[in-house]
Specification:
One of its GO terms (molecular function) is nucleic acid binding. The protein is 42% helix and 16% strand. It is an alpha/beta fold and 430 residues long. Bound molecules: adenosine monophosphate.
Length: 430
């Protein structure tokens, strides 16, 4: 199905052709016709499926079809995203799609000056992409008005909930007096998400492009069982031996990220850092270097790297397994995008075997183990045998992420669960 068959204007089709878009992706095929008719949308779509165009193109076309004079501080369409990087990326995509039409878009997020954002808001915007926290700050200063809002999008809504943005979202919603067309995109669904979507959406068209909690079919998953203290060596060895050119490495803690980048550099591997403690400009620079191939490795924490679109990224490494299985799906969503091949490599220490089981259950796939000579973990078999006999572990749940990228409440809950899990594992080892 081509974009011109969706009656997008020739200027938009031309811009899309320049982006290399010829045919609609499945999520676009499902969402665009309904969104063009003004329906609310509830979409289960993982990253890399083309969801940004799925929600933004119908908005762009509707704004072009119905141009209005821009009023100071006024916004016609609001797109909420959980992270700075994702917000910047969505705005960049929209700029690309609107190259040949007269429409303005801006992204506002924390970590950059309020004053420069205020200037953008003052002129009035057709489309505003924002993280909830920074948007609220501007709303409190009357720098932005949602009084005439026509379109509202929640992108990666599950992550916004995970990051504790629920009260910010409710505060933003309380300022919206119109009934905007609303679209909610999420990679995973929970009871809290269902509750939120019931509150936000009116008779939404439900769409789903892949089974819940699935990873892209073009991704090959492998696991390297390895002791924690050998992971660093294993990473350098794999990068060197297999000649990996572009690797996104996920770790759970910013300290691990700092340490790992130093060590990789000592091994002569150019690596950059992306975590929540880094200034926005430094994160942007790191991402650019990584995208341009100036750095071979980017070491990132979960939240910082959320939603990043790196064209044709071939390798994602879970240096640490995520604490929650669902996050595996999010991380791996960085590779195998738009039908390209991807490799998801996980380093699994004894303590992480339980998470691995959960991941396999979630993605309904057994992941191939590769035992690399010289890196065999000590006593793994004994642990595995015990683990499979302990039913208590099979339904282990909990959510933990990089503590520095999370709210205090989330961090406390994470630590509580980590302590609990640790004591379970310690018991298991006895
Ligand atoms: P997204 O899920 O929106 O982050 O998109 C993932 C990647 O697919 C991005 O690099 C998009 O530019 C690309 N993409 C989106 N729609 C299409 C399309 N119809 N044809 C080709 N590439 C696309």
């Amino acid at each position: 199905m081509s974009f011109s068959s969706q009656s997008f204007s020739p200027e938009i089709v031309r811009a899309l052709t320049e982006c290399g878009y010829e045919k609609l992706t499945p999520i676009q095929q499902q969402a665009i016709p309904h969104a063009r008719r003004g329906q609310d949308i509830l979409a289960n779509a993982q990253t890399g499926t083309g969801k940004t165009a799925a929600f933004s193109l119908p908005i762009i076309q509707q704004i072009c079809d119905n141009p209005k004079q821009r009023n100071r501080f006024n916004v016609r369409a609001l797109i909420l995203a959980p992270t700075r990087e994702l917000a910047a990326q969505i705005a960049k995509n929209i700029e690309d799609y609107t190259k040949y039409v007269s429409l303005n878009v801006a992204a506002i997020y924390g970590g950059t000056k309020m004053s420069s954002q205020e200037k953008k808001l003052e002129q009035g915007l057709d489309i505003l992409v924002a993280t909830p926290g920074r948007l609220l700050e501007h709303m409190e200063l009357n720098n932005v008005s949602l009084a005439n809002l026509e379109f509202l999008v929640f992108d990666e809504a599950d992550r916004m909930l995970d990051m504790g943005f629920i009260s910010d979202i409710r505060m933003i919603m309380s300022d919206i007096r119109t009934q905007p067309q609303t679209m909610l995109f999420s990679a995973t669904f929970s009871s809290q998400m269902n509750k939120l979507s019931n509150e936000l959406l009116r008779k939404p068209k439900r769409i789903s492009v892949s089974p819940e909690n699935a990873t892209a079919e073009t991704v090959a998953h492998v696991v390297y069982p390895v002791d924690e203290d050998r992971k660093r060596e294993l990473l350098s060895e794999l990068i060197g031996k297999k000649n990996w050119k572009q690797v996104l490495v996920f770790v759970n803690y910013k300290e691990t990220a700092n340490e790992l980048v130093k060590e990789l550099k000592l091994d002569g591997i150019k690596a950059v850092l992306c975590h929540g403690d880094k200034a926005q400009s430094a994160r942007r620079r790191a991402l650019d270097e990584f995208k341009e191939g100036k750095a071979r490795v980017m070491v990132a924490t979960e939240v910082a790297a959320r939603g990043l679109d790196i064209q044709g990224l071939p390798h994602v490494v879970n240096y640490d397994m995520p604490f929650l299985a669902e996050d595996y799906v999010h991380r791996i969503g960085r590779t195998g995008r738009a039908g390209q091949e991807g490799h998801a490599v996980s380093f699994v220490s004894r303590e992480e075997e339980l998470t691995l089981l959960q991941v396999e259950k979630l993605i309904k796939q057994r992941i191939r183990r590769i035992q690399l000579a010289g890196y065999e973990p000590a006593n793994r078999d004994a642990l595995l045998q015990k683990m499979h006999t302990k039913s208590a572990f099979k339904d282990r749940s909990g959510r933990t992420n990089n503590p520095t990228d999370q709210s205090d409440a989330e961090r406390r809950a994470r630590l509580r669960r980590a302590v609990l899990n640790k004591s379970k594992i310690t018991k298991l080892k006895k």
